[in-house]
Specification:
The protein has helices at about 5-10, 25-30, 45-60, 85-95, 115-120, 135-145, 160-175, 190-200, 220-230, 240-245, 265-270, 280, 305-310, 315-335; strands at about 70-75, 100-105, 130, 150, 180-185, 205-210, 235-240, 250-255, 290-295. The protein is of the alpha/beta class. The strands form 2 sheets. A 5-stranded parallel β-sheet has the order 7-6-5-8-9. Strands 2-1-3-4 form a 4-stranded parallel β-sheet, sandwiched between helices. Strand 1, helix 4 (about 85-95) and strand 2 (about 100-105) form a beta-alpha-beta unit. The two termini are about 30 Å apart. It binds phosphoric acid mono(formamide)ester and norvaline. Phosphoric acid mono(formamide)ester binds near residues 81, 82 and 162.
Length: about 350
């Protein structure tokens, strides 16, 4: 999304609010016309504003049921999906809009025609584009040429919608995200990248424990630590899962072989087995710690069934919150937030 002004005219969006807005409401308004390709696209205030609206949407979804009347979303998925596809489609439907799903699993986007041509066509028909791709560059390229908002629904490098839902879940459970200690144990993958950036934005302490050679990309660590300088977040890396979870409020893991890495699954299972989240590992976390997983999960591999299905597991709350947080995100990117001026004043995070 490169031309915000043109975009606003194209969508016939409401004029920017004339009333004085508090900092978080200003941040919400500033999301109008933007993309979410990376968590790095957000400021701390914008990230907080998305969660604020997501909580409102979860509490009173009926208030927004016509907010996106006549708005259309195009969704291109090169990889399978349960949660992401359904939450975007259900989300658009319950906001009065609609979503068009394009199964892109048989050929990569850009194979039939250039990504630029895809982008320049889409903006003539729909108001927002959602992409799940192998190459992160596919999404950045579509975003570069699109005058409409573009959302990353998972790439090889990031999964920002997942991270937003995860931090919404943490906020529900613990209140202030600044008091939370999150441990991520497993592969330094797309999910870990977005979680580190989200932790940085929300002022959270995160420790990422991975096998040597499987850590998050250094540029993501640097980016998260740079953001953390202004928010008080702490971004730590280790190869020791026990040390990572010591005293943690939440323990998070993801698959050991991501979509596209199936041929490495056997080797990865051998390397990652000491990183399984099981009862012994969870007993090293805080007594009230919760367990998080983006799903799909493999019981007996990255997580023991007793943990995934046990009382500390919050994985279905995470999955539910994908719906609310993505509805909030779409409303904000399209500049259609009817509650913004009439709702109780938004507050800045403490
Ligand atoms: N967590 C997640 O993105 O799930 P799906 O792959 O089913 O969309
Ligand atoms: N890291 C996983 C996340 C799935 C939601 C993958 O990319 O396959």
């Amino acid at each position: 999304m490169t031309h915000n002004t043109e975009h606003a005219a194209l969508l016939d969006l409401p004029a920017a609010p004339a009333v004085a807005l508090d900092p978080l409401a200003r941040a919400a308004a500033s999301l109008r016309g933007k993309d979410l390709v990376s968590m790095q696209d957000l400021s701390p205030a914008q990230a907080a504003a998305i969660l604020k609206l997501a909580h409102e949407l979860k509490a009173a979804p009926e208030r927004y049921r016509t907010a996106l009347a006549s708005k259309q979303m195009a969704m291109f998925f090169e990889k399978p999906s349960l949660r992401t596809r359904i939450t975007f489609e259900a989300g658009m439907n319950t906001l009065g809009g609609s979503a068009i799903f394009i199964d892109q699993s048989q050929s990569r986007l850009g194979a039939r025609e250039s990504l630029r041509d895809v982008a320049l066509n889409l903006e003539r028909w729909v108001q927002i584009v959602v992409l799940r791709t192998f190459a992160h560059a596919t999404i950045t390229t579509i975003a570069e040429y699109s005058s409409i908002p573009v959302i990353n629904a998972l790439s090889d490098l990031e999964h920002p919608c997942q991270a937003l839902a995860d931090f919404m879940t943490l906020e529900e459970r613990f209140g202030s995200l600044r008091r939370v200690k999150l441990a991520y144990v497993g592969d330094g993958n797309n999910v870990s990248h977005s979680l580190m950036l989200a932790a940085a934005l929300y002022g959270t302490r995160i420790t990422v424990a991975t096998p040597p050679q499987y850590g998050p990309l250094p540029e993501y660590v640097t980016a998260a630590r740079t953001i953390a300088e202004s928010t008080g977040a702490v971004i730590e890396l280790t190869n020791d899962p026990l040390a990572a979870v010591a005293g943690a409020d939440a323990v998070y893991t993801d698959v050991w072989a991501s979509m596209g890495q199936e041929s490495e699954a056997a080797e990865r299972e051998r390397i990652f087995s000491p990183y399984q989240v099981n009862d012994a590992l969870m007993s090293n976390a805080a007594p009230e710690a919760i367990f998080l997983h983006c799903l799909p999960a493999h019981r007996g591999a990255e997580v023991a069934a007793s943990v995934l299905d046990g009382g500390q597991s919050a994985v279905y709350d995470q999955a539910e919150n994908r719906l609310h947080v993505q509805k909030a995100l779409v409303l904000l990117l399209l500049g259609t937030t009817p509650g913004l001026q009439t709702a109780a004043p938004l507050t800045t995070p403490d």
